[in-house]
Amino acid sequence: MKLKYFSHSSFQLTANSGIKILIDPFLDGNPTSPVKAEDVDAEYIILTHAHDDHIGDSFSIAKRCSPLFICVNELAEYCKAKGFEAHNMHIGGGYDFEFGRVKFTIAHHGSMTPDNSYAGEPAGVIVSIDGKNIYHTGDTGLFYDMKLIGEMTPIDYMLLPIGDNFTMGITDAVKAVEFTAPKIAIPMHYNTFPVIKVDPNEFKTKAETNGINCIVMEYGEEIEL
Ligand code: NI
Ligand code: MN
C-alpha cells in the first residue's frame, strides 16, 4: 500500500487493491498543500474531527466522487444531513471495510463544525490495510493511553501532530512515540500557519535519540509502506 502526504493532517492511503482513502483532506484553504481538492479522488473519506482544517474540502470532493465517509456517529450524521453517505462509528469500535479495518481511538481536543454544529468527540484512527497498521492520532494532546493503544495494536506508522498551540508540541510528541512505540513516526500538523511553526527535524532527532525511526515527509510525497 501507499501513503501520500498533502501537508497539515491530510493523507491519502492507496491499498494494493487500488482503493483510495483520504484522511482529513484540507487542500484548497491550506497554504502548504501542493494539490487542490479537484486533483484528488477517493472511495472513502475518514474524518478525525469536524474542525475546518480537517473537514477541509471533504464535501466538494464528495460531490464529485461520492465516497463513503467514516467517522464518529455525530459527525457521520452531520455528513448525512449535508447529503452524503456515511458509516457511523465511535471511539473504541472497529469495523472491517472492503479495504481493511478502521478503529477509532480517543483524542483530547474539540470538534465543533465550521457552522457551529455539534460533531461529537474528536478521535484518532487506526487503519489496518494490507498487513500494516497506521495510527493517525488526529488533533490531540499527549495522553498515557497511547501506551495501551500501541500494546493492543502494534503500530507500523504513527502520524502525529507536533505543531504545538492546538495539539502536542515536540516535547510531548516525543513522549507520545515513546508510549506508542511505532516502527516509524511521521510528524504532521506543523508549519501550516505561523502559530504552529516548528522544525520537524528537531522532532526527528529527538525521537531517533529515543530509538524511534522517523520520516519527515515532503508535501506531496508518496511512500510505499
Ligand atoms: Ni482541530
Ligand atoms: Mn487541526
Give the total of beta strands: 14
For the record, what is the CATH homologous superfamily label?
Answer: Ribonuclease Z/Hydroxyacylglutathione hydrolase-like
Q: Report Rg.
A: 16 Å
Terminal CA distance reads 6 Å
What is the share of helical residues? 10-25%
**Helix run count:** 6
In sequence order, what are the helices and strands, one letter per element?
A: EEEEHHEHEEEEEHEHEHEE
Return the domain count.
Answer: 1
Q: In the CATH hierarchy, what is the class?
A: Alpha Beta
Which molecules other than protein and nucleic acid are bound? nickel (II) ion, manganese (II) ion
What does this structure look like?
The protein is built from six helices and 14 strands. The protein has 225 residues and is an alpha/beta fold. The chain has a single domain, classed as 4-Layer Sandwich (Metallo-beta-lactamase, Chain A), CATH 3.60.15.10. The strands form two sheets. A seven-stranded mixed sheet has the order 6-5-4-3-2-1-14, with helices on one face. Strands 7-8-9-10-11-12-13 form a seven-stranded mixed sheet, with helices on one face. α6 links the parallel β12 (184-188) and β13. The chain is globular. The N and C termini lie close together (6 Å). 48% of the residues are buried. The model has no long low-confidence stretch (mean pLDDT 98). The structure holds nickel (II) ion and manganese (II) ion. Nickel (II) ion binds at residues 49, 51, 54, 109, 139, 166.
